Amino acid sequence: MRGKIHTTRKLLCCLGLILSGLFFSYAQPTVLGTQLANGNYSAYDLADRGGVRFVRIQATSAGLSGTRSWEFARGTASNADYSTNWRPYSTVSAIALNTYINPSNTEASARYNTGFGGSKGSLPAITLSSYYTVNIGKNSTADNFMSVLSTTYNPKTLPRFPKTHPQ
Asked: What is the pTM of this model?
């Protein structure tokens, strides 16, 4: 009897860990809401790439600094949940492009909010036809590092490199 109880406890413990892992992985930022592309607000699903999530967007119209917004949330693009989000705590100046944005020393950053808290972040001037790659870390209940990289060409995704070098 004692062996069955021990086995049952192990199974329940494993099940608990699996379920909590599913909960916390879902609680990570998975959606970007932004006006980046054309000034109209849209939600985008973030792709998973190692330790970050990202989305690449091409601007179909230009925009002045501070006139377009960004924010990260949970869920999917078709069913985003902004009750938990990653955005500045209050209205701040536009973020810098091509910079690693550290939330511990930059107010305009992906800061963790609950209860629909925080305020949408502002984007700098947007250039027509440029590509913007928006990156965010995977912290589920904490602030996240982020960056917005801008290029005039569509960046290529690099394949995994082999572990051995050709001779």
From this structure: 0.79
